[in-house]
Amino acid sequence: MLWFKVLALPVLLTIGLIFYNEYFIFYKAFSSCSFPCKHGRCSEDNLKAFIISDTHLLGERNGHWLDKLKREWQMYQSFWISTWIHNPEVVFFLGDLMDEGKWASGKLFSSYAQRFHQLFEGDIKVVTLAGNHDIGFHYAIMPDTYEMFRKEFKRGLIDEIQIKGNRFVLINSMALHGDGCRLCHEAEIELEKMKKRKPPDRPIVLQHFPLFRKSDGDCEKIDENHDIDYKEIYREQWDTLSEKSTQKLIDTLNPKAVFGGHTHKLCKRRWRKSVTSLSFYEYTLNSFSWRNGDIPAIFLVVVDGDDVLVSTCRLPSESTQITVYLFGGLLIGILTIFLFLKGDSIFKQRYVYSLLIYRSQKKSA
After folding, report:
1. What is the domain partition of the chain in residue ranges?
2. How big is the chain by its Cα radius of gyration, in Å?
3. So which domain of life are we looking at (predicted)?
4. CB 349 within 8 Å of CB 357
């Protein structure tokens, strides 16, 4: 009975702490975001989309089971709570779905892909792209790995899809080296076919790599939490597309917006076509996993005719969650010790009092 009285409150507080850290902080973070609709309200003709990048689901080689469990739980909670609150019509994943797909054999690759489907696919339309961790960098892509990805995720080198009348071009960044390899040659043929068709509407381009830039020094701040890294210098064809491939992509597709990931850093950059007055914004998204950054983000995108409106929705901070657990656990531990000592003292007082009553009754008898 004493143990129940001592532990009842600490157990309830522990359950409350876990609920706050594993559910409420996600709900609170995503409730503070909204789609960037014109005049504060989206019309039924607008397309509302989520863009997510670099989930990096851990595999057998580099992932400890506890780390894997924590990261997957964080992304699972983030994905389903955010989609429940905002109800996007489509969710785009910009590659690096898996961390070790490039090393996986047939059955293992399939198990990684199925894990992604289990975590992120349901009633919502999900569109996926390949990243270098899924199939390897350009020089290391094996035909079998590419075919496994194509089979599991139904994604080719260059794909074109229509959603609510909006055109999206989905690009395998590793096939844009322009060195005449088989994959690059096939991708160039597909791009030329699109150019010859001369579609009237400008597409939204989605890929894993960003367009060419030397550093993030060319970027604008995308939100108040965005710290631009001016020091890191990017390498062509490793961190970004090459300058030549970038220019060819822009000239061929004339996009109205471009989205990428890969660098695990945010960026918003304005591009202007040299021969016309047309311009567009390129957006680079950081990783969705706490493993690759303390405050991941989702892009909330509204396509309204020729306008592509973008806002960021930040996930909760992992460091804040850890701090809450440490201080909350410490306070619950102190409270438990206090209640135990208090309960033990009361028990001893009652024991002494009962003993005195017993002796007094014995003497009077």
Report:
1. 33-316
2. 27
3. Eukaryota
4. no
How do residues 83-127 score in pLDDT, each as one tens digit? 999 999 999 999 999 999 999 988 999 999 999 999 998 889 999
HSE on the CB side for 53, CA within 13 Å? 28
Task: Just give the CATH number of 33-316.
Answer: 3.60.21.10
Note whether 47 and 302 are within 8 A (CB): yes
Using DSSP's 3-state secondary structure scheme, residue 272 falls into: strand
Q: Is 53 helix (H, G, I), strand (E, B) or coil?
A: coil
Tokens of 251: 């000239």
CA torsion, ordered 346, 350, 353, 354, to nearest 10 deg: -170
DSSP reduced 3-state for 197: helix
* Separation of alpha carbons 48 and 34, rounded Å: 11
Evaluate if residue 10 carries a pLDDT over 90: no
pLDDT in tens, 186-235: 999 999 888 888 777 899 999 999 999 999 999 999 988 888 999 999 99
- Cα separation, 289 vs 73, whole angstroms: 10
SS3 letters for 33-80? CCCCCHHHCCCCCCEEEEEECCCCECCCCCCCHHHHHHHHHHHHHHHH
Written as six digits, the tokens of 169 are 């071009």
Task: Give the type of residue at 336.
Answer: T
128/300 Cα distance (integer angstroms): 16
The single-letter code of the amino acid at 138 is H
* DSSP secondary structure of 312-329: EEEPPPHHHHHHHHHHHH
Q: How far apart are CA 101 and CA 53, in angstroms?
A: 15
CB-based contact 58:287 (threshold 8 Å): no
Q: Residues 294, 318: contact at Cβ < 8 Å? A: yes
